[in-house]
Design brief:
Radius of gyration: 22 Å
Strand order of the largest sheet: 10-11-9-8-7-6-5-2-14
Mean pLDDT: 92
Structural class: alpha/beta
Shape: globular
Oligomer: single chain
Low-confidence stretches: none
Length: about 450
Amino acid sequence: MKSHDLEKKYNIPVPRYTSYPAVPYWNGAPCEGIWLGHLKDQYDPAQGVELYIHVPFCEKLCFYCGCHRVISKNKDRGLEYVNYLIKEWKLYKKKLGDIKIASIHLGGGTPNFLTVEAFTNLFNELSPNFKEEEFKGSIEIDPRTCTKEQLDMYKSFGIERLSMGIQDFDEKVQLAIGRVQPYEKVKELVDYAREIGIADINFDLIYGLPFQSTNTITETIEKVLTLNPLQIAFYSYAHLPSRIKNQRLIPEEGLLHGMEKRALYEKGKELLAINHYEEIGLDHFAKDDSSLAKAKKEGSLRRNFMGHTHKTSSMIIGLGCSSISSSIKSFAQNEKEVKEYYNKIDSGLLAIRSGHIQSSQDLEVEEIMQDFFATNSIDKKSWKKLNHASIIKQKLDELQEDGLIEEGDRFLVTEKGRPFMRNIASIFDHHLLKSKQNSGSTSL
């Protein structure tokens, strides 16, 4: 099938599969008792838990952003918010007993919105529970507002990984998305982070933004390479102005679509490959000698709400508004609005708003999905016991006919099929099959 025909057939909305099932198909929050029971059943002191902490505050609005965030310059709001994060953590400790923390990831929003005082208050509360020798900390930072003093503080609390929202270095693109940050400012921060011993640095880039071209992508990637991050996330911009109001500020006349947009990704991917970055998963690259690249080669890479990992706990506890927690059996998402989150915590309740209890078939499909994204291939037997196995067989035959997969010891994704990984994964999604309409952003 020709590229134009593949685009027409497969460039449809499909989930991103950061979880399975995808959030639109969750069946409702587990009650607090059931949720805590799942955590108690699965907690392993030797493994500990991973914490995800959501900080919703940003000083400025980025026009493309679809995250849960609050625009404010009032840093006192961060101090108040930390008090509630601490209250929520104490609720979990009261209900679960002693909990060891294997890792913490702070996302947002803008986690470095928190002042030194606010951050110190939070980590002084959490740090007695760290699994000292194994603890890993990571934080997303805005290079425009993060200071050297903050980096010193992060390092002192054991944070050894930084994720920086770069998006694009082209000035015209930056103006169009409301995020102007000079290369020199980013370089200064990266150089200082390495000087104090923070070497694990990730850059977030976005393709499909207004006024991007293969030339601007080339220039951005070349600048990125001079800064030598260990990992790079190269995301597709999902333009959904009917759902995300601030995206109405994006000049639509500057947007590319379909295969023209995909060409931006392919150019970036080509440049990264030449410079020894391995494509480890959907929109993610890592230095070919990194632990994540090695896990990809071994087929042991896993993906969750916080990104790709080669070593993960069976439990993620999310603190803060809109944060998502997971156990082997269920997901739980907190209240999305700050006020509602505060009200729940003040009532002595966990702030759970939505979620999903996984069925046995959910768990089977999730494992198939994890294996697929880890290996870019499909086991020939793992799906045959699923209720919709006959439909999967038909879809596999169709994918072969279209040249997206080829048969060997396993069904292997071809180069032609790489842009449509989410489409291929979706054939296992029994929730999507039963749904009247697709959910998510288009695959290209």
